[in-house]
Amino acid sequence: MVQQIIFGTVGGLGLLIYGIQLMGDGLQQVAGDRMRKILSALTNNSLMGVFVGAVVTSIIQSSSATTVLLVGFINAGLITLEQAVGVIMGANIGTTITAQIIALKLTDYAMPAIGLGFGLTFFCKRNLYKNIGRIILGLGLLFLGLNTMSGAVKFLRKHEAIRALLLSLSSNPFLGVLAGILVTVTIQSSSASIGLLLSLAAGGMIDLSAAIPILLGDNIGTCITALFASIGTSVSAKRAAVAHTVFNIIGTAIVLLLLPYYETIIKYTAGDIAHQIANAHTLFNVMNTIILFPFISLLIKLVTKIVPGEADERPNYLDERLLNTPVVAMGQVKNEIVYMGNTVHEMLETAINGFFNNDHKLFQKVVRKEGVVDVLEKDISHYLVKISQHRITPQTSQQLSSYMNIINDLERIGDHSENLTKLAQLLLDGKARFTPTAMEEIKKLYEKNSHFVRGTVDAIKNDDKNLAREIYKDEDDVDQMVALYRKNHISRLNDGSCGVIPGLIFVDMLNNFEKIGDHAYNICEAVLGKK
User: I want to staple 135 with a disulfide (CB 3.0 to 4.6 A). Which of 26, 235, 314, 347 is the partner?
Assistant: First the structure.
């Protein structure tokens, strides 16, 4: 009997999970790549985000999968945290469709569905029919798994100790919530854990009072996948995963406070316990979304406190809707390039301040800013390519080419600023120091480069060719200073006042300053129309 219970429960659960996965895969294939395009093309309309989240999750059949997808999109810079929160709310609603399907009690049609699904999948040549076959086959396996689990649960009725344990959950809702969390974390699917819950309820092993706290725990447990997926991602991506968890925890707390009233409402929604549990799942997520939707900004503030850190910076000016007016779009590109230039200049300043003040936090800030610059360079490049696909004048085409060169040079200045940070950190971590003369030379070279970069950004901002010509000469000054400081460095090596390791780091820093000057020079040429 024990063997029948274990094999029936584990095997039935396996069929259920595989059926859900197969059905979701088939639905995704039928829908094509539209889901990703829809998600990545979201606007700032959070209400639309709720709708999209519900639809996409109905197709994927997993709110965890949707949230993991969102974590990836945020980390890639395709959408913002504000956009993602609305989608997460909708995802929780969309995932309840599985419980509603399970509650229909279509177990008698499991075998015909498996037969039909198998036939379409293995004998049809068209991918559309094959994918429809996967959907039907997945449904059949889902119901077969439920049927198998229900048969195994019947044996549990004879064990009063187990029956009493399950029924005791109705008197202690917190234990029920914990049980739901543990089960969902273990099997990594809230839909499957609710399917197991429906089997227990159908077998008379658990009542509605115990079932509601368990399904609340299921909703919290399903967040663990997204939390794991957010490890090693950007701050905003981590916040999205945490927002999913906080959203479900707040909703659970609200329902637990009103549990008797909530249970009474659910009893009126259906006559059988299977539909009651499915309705409780749906109503919980719909109600939670309605209550918390007006407070999305507060939810984001709370998540920001839970996951502190500098928010990821995204393009501020690029707008797809302006592409049909290339001249206007190019103006926005210029604004974005100026923002990128200011960020690069800030990186250079921060790198040297970290070096002179031995501040490792400033080094970390430079590394974060370098990631921002990389994203800006990629996004601006893509935007310029889209502009080029429209009808543009020869003058706009020349300007577009110039902007392409400028963002490449700005990105390289950012790279060299990060290199300066790494060299400074290497020096300080090795407890080594430059001589006072070398420190003064680094300071002077930084000041010249800072003036040079600042001037190029201002020249871009104001389309100031006179300024570009004026600071154009700074590149010669940088080259002369680097050449002089190399000679001075060799003299210090010869008289023994400079060590080998600090000396190598000093030379590398000179090289990076020289490269920064070269790229600033290239930007001046672009502003003057020479590139």
Answer: 26
